[in-house]
Specification:
There is one protein chain. Helices cover 22% and strands 26% of the residues. The chain has 335 residues and is of the alpha/beta class. It has two domains: 2-106 and 241-323, FAD/NAD(P)-binding domain, CATH 3.50.50.60; 109-238, FAD/NAD(P)-binding domain (3-Layer(bba) Sandwich), CATH 3.50.50.60. The strands form five sheets. Strands 9, 10, 11, 12, 13, 14 and 15 form a seven-stranded mixed beta sheet that branches. A five-stranded parallel beta sheet has the order 3-2-1-7-18, with helices on one face. Strands 4-5-6 form a three-stranded antiparallel beta sheet, with no helix packed on it. Helix 6 links the parallel strand 11 (167-171) and strand 12 (199-202). It is elongated and about 60 Å long. It starts with a strand and ends in a 29-residue tail after the last helix.
Length: 335
């Protein structure tokens, strides 16, 4: 039996371990798109502040895989899934076959259209490489703008403020999907951010953007004076990485549609983590459970079910993103 796992984040790693626990003889391959070994993505803002270096982010869970006979490949981007042939093609021209497949490709912040022409001055906080870019560019003089509605934007703004930067947080309302903080939490975070010296444009995205010297002039979408910034850090809501599924027959909404056993509509193909859109039979709603702890739980369940366990995913508020990692969000602003 050959198990192919796309994504070497917490969902993919947990799934690989669960497969090995259930099937000692399984052929398991975990493929990651980034060239680096798996790392602890929730700590990227600590790389921005300089509290951690790249080496300290290595994911110890991933280091155990080789000892369990699980193969890993880095720097391989999936480009096409052929469900009939049971194969996945990659950008380098390689093809991998599978008996069971897990899609755990995660998500990344979406760069608004009006910012896509300024790649050197607009950096999403979605990878170790970009966290290092943000830290380096933050050495330049000037205000830094952070764009995003929720948790990631809040902690990124705080990290930059910790470096002594002037920070303008453009917060375009609640996330359209995922796990909003809720009114009372959101108000508390905004108050704490302002107390930390962060200028908050609540309800505003990017209205206009143009180059100006080494930086940009950005105008908030809900009015207000233009702001001169050295860069824009994009911390918008995460959009699932599922482009390679187009035309495959795997059903997708915003993410990969799965049932409560994390199965897609194609037998033998599962999805877990930030790219998975779960349908709740109790509420008849679909939703995402973003975050590290949720991805680990989903990945483990998906791995078990790939080997035939048939278990259902239990969702609780404890899996919600803003409660998953570190101290409560408001407490981070207290220093």
């Amino acid at each position: 039996m050959r198990y192919l796992i796309l994504g070497n984040g917490p969902a993919g790693i947990s799934a690989a371990k669960a497969v090995r626990e259930s099937d000692a003889a399984a052929d398991v391959l975990v493929v990651g798109e980034e060239p680096s070994a798996p790392y602890l993505r929730p700590l990227l803002t600590e790389v921005v502040t300089g509290d951690r270096d790249a080496g300290s982010l290595v994911n110890p869970q991933a280091a155990e895989l080789a000892g369990r006979g699980i193969a890993m490949r880095f720097g391989a981007k999936a480009t096409r899934l052929d469900v009939s042939a049971r194969t996945v093609a990659f950008a380098a021209g390689t093809v991998e076959s599978f008996d069971a497949l897990l899609i755990a490709t995660g998500g990344r912040p979406a760069i608004p259209h009006k910012l896509r022409h300024f790649e050197d001055k607009v950096v999403p906080i979605d990878s170790l490489a970009n966290a290092l870019r943000i830290r380096e560019r933050a050495k330049a003089r000037g205000v830094v703008a952070v764009l995003g509605p929720g948790f990631l934007a809040a902690v990124t703004a705080l990290a930059l403020r910790t470096l002594g930067k002037e920070v303008a947080w453009l917060k375009p309302g609640e996330p359209r999907f995922g796990n909003p903080e809720g009114g009372r939490v959101d108000a508390g975070v905004l108050s704490a951010a302002r107390s930390a010296g962060i200028v908050v444009f609540d309800g505003a995205g990017i209205g206009e953007a143009r180059e100006s010297g080494d930086g940009l002039i950005v105008t908030p979408s809900q009015g207000g004076d233009p702001v001169s910034v050295s860069m824009v850090v994009v911390a918008t809501e995460r959009h699932p990485n599922t482009a390679f599924l187009r035309g495959s027959g795997v059903e997708s909404g915003t993410g990969v549609l799965v049932d409560d056993a994390l199965r897609t509509n194609i037998p033998g193909i599962f999805a877990a983590g930030d790219c998975a859109e779960l349908y709740d039979r109790t509420t008849h709603e679909s939703r995402f459970n973003f975050g590290w702890r949720s991805a680990m739980a989903q990945g483990h369940l998906a791995g078990e079910n790939m080997t035939g366990a048939g278990k259902a995913y239990l969702r609780t508020r404890d899996d919600y993103f803003w409660r998953l990692f570190g101290p409560p969000l408001r407490d981070r602003f207290k220093g």
